[in-house]
Amino acid sequence: MGKDRTVLESGYTFANKGGSLLSHSFPEALLRVGMFTDWFEFRIGQSFLHEEEKTGGVTNVRNGGQDLYLGMKLADRAEETVSSDRRDPANDGTDRQ
Prior knowledge:
By secondary structure, this protein is mainly β. It has no helices and six strands.
């Protein structure tokens, strides 16, 4: 991601299982922060859930924050760029059967 860069990602998930289970998950936020060097990234994420489940004519409603996500990402090597005109040294241009 790069040192001194910050990215905020978010999403929304809706699930409906035949009317018996309805759930919404939001904001599914993930904050990514490049720290120390280009190959280190700190991550923190949080989401909230609203769920309605119907069982035997009774509707159970659950709301609340999901587990806090803390993590880091380390790059094990530099990215490589591949040119479109890069040639395979094993291919000398001749057709072999």
